[in-house]
Amino acid sequence: MNEQVGQFLANLSEFFLYFVAAAVLTVIFVAIYTRITKHNEIALIKENSTAAALAFAGSLVGFALPLASTMINSINIVEMVLWGLVALIVQVLVYLFIRLPMPRISERIEAGEVAAGIWLGTCSIVAGILNAASMTT
Q: Which of 131, 132, 102, 130 lies closest to 117 in space, CA to CA?
């Protein structure tokens, strides 16, 4: 019984380490992503913008999927953080690439056009799924 408790406590400390690292990476992602986009996601969501909420939720899910994948597959915390940074970069690139065929996507999201929010959110999720799959061994 003492061995089980000892093993649990060892696993619990590792859980907290990975969880805190993932939470910090998520906060960093939000800070960077919201500064790169031309629209203010947080302000728009506070104003009840469905378009902004959908786009931002998709980007968060698109970031969290590969982050979770790397948490599962990484051999240590450093590897997880490095792959988490890759996931962050991929999501920023998605936003920048989506602006190529739709350069006014931020303006459309600001105007409350739900289709633009769905498009950006969906592209972010798809990129996250592909990113997560690419990180598996």
A: 102
If you count them, how many residues does the chain have? 137
Per-residue pLDDT of 23-40, as tens digits, reads: 999 999 999 999 999 999
* Structural contact between residues 11 and 73, judged by C-beta atoms closer than 8 angstroms: no
Tokens of 48: 């009840």
- C-alpha of 127 from chain center: 10
Q: Measured between alpha carbons, how far is 55 from 6 in angstroms, rounded to an integer?
A: 44
Model confidence over 68-98: pLDDT tens digits?
999 999 999 999 999 999 999 999 999 999 9
Whole-model pTM: value is 0.91
User: In sequence order, which ranges of 74-134 are alpha helices (DSSP H)?
Assistant: 77-98, 105-110, 114-134
CB 84 within 8 A of CB 69: no
